[in-house]
Amino acid sequence: xxxxxxxxxxxxxxxxxxxxxxxxxxxxxxxxxxxxxxxxxxxxxxxxxxxxxxxxxxxxxxxxxxxxxxxxxxxxxxxxxxxxxxxxxxxxxxxxxxxxxxxxxxxxxxxxxxxxxxxxxxxxxxxxxxxxxxxxxxxxxxxxxxxxxxxxxxxxxxxxxxxxxxxxxxxxxxxxxxxxxxxxxxxxxxxxxxxxxxxxxxxxxxxxxxxxxxxxxxxxxxxxxxxxxxxxxxxxxxxxxxxxxxxxxxxxxxxxxxxxxxxxxxxxxxxxxxxxxxxxxxxxxxxxxxxxxxxxxxxxxxxxxxxxxxxxxxxxxxxxxxxxxxxxxxxxxxxxxxxxxxxxxxxxxxxxxxxxxxxxxxx
Length: 363
What we know:
Helices cover 50% and strands 9% of the residues. The protein is mainly α. It has three domains: 2-129, no CATH class; 168-236, no CATH class; 276-359, Rossmann fold (3-Layer(aba) Sandwich). The strands form three sheets. It has a three-stranded parallel beta sheet with strand order 1-5-4, covered by helices on one side. It has a three-stranded parallel beta sheet with strand order 7-6-8. The chain has a two-stranded antiparallel ribbon with strand order 2-3. The relative contact order is 0.06.
């Protein structure tokens, strides 16, 4: 609701699709949504003459023609008039359970399950294509077979691309452990470790690393060269994994805070004593003067210049496009910051109080 409201206030040209099968896992809409209908609940956001707001549309998920017409109209409106739209797609079906233990046969009636089978989107699409002479039943059968074959081939290719690299690492580690086993007193223990590793059905990098660490712990008192070779392999693998899983989380350019040189504080003997807010205000002022890509927005940062006056007078100086107030909406403040950063701007996203950070931490 917070982000939905923020988009309405800012008139963000975004399209929100709500695909609604009237269930939240096993919980039906009557226990999940007021009026059992999210678009009915959100009608207060409907745009009217002279006001901002949303354009809200409702369409059935199995009606291909209506879906095309609705989305074409809604997206054009969204882009042309720069307004947010919501498309509530109802009467969706659930082809599978939400999880391996969440089969929908456990909580849906036989009538509902029969309806889902009849109104499955693919079933209805096939029916429409035949009735509209888009394709014959035989052509659709051939298309379905081709599509299944293509997906299977893509699945195998993707799995091979992932697993082949891991298989190489598994083979390297296993051979190093086997070699180590020839020169230590715990040979049987190391043999069991490699046997367990090679028996993995779908091994991952974790399995390989765990096996190597087990072997190193088992031979901690065996100072042989072969053990050092295994240590070196693990160190190299850790570096590779750091690049795989821990790189590119933050900018690695010269603009990274980690790459900015430290400038030690230095004061003249007759330096004026100032409040911290005045120092912050002067720093923000200098930064906004220096870099036109810097923008600031958040709770009370604009008109009053922040509760603690760190931005006092800056909105009047730089304008309300660059320094902007928002509502109390921490998650969307972080989202706006992420979006602005992705587009090359340098946002200062302000959340007023420390305890409010809890509401944005999931973003």
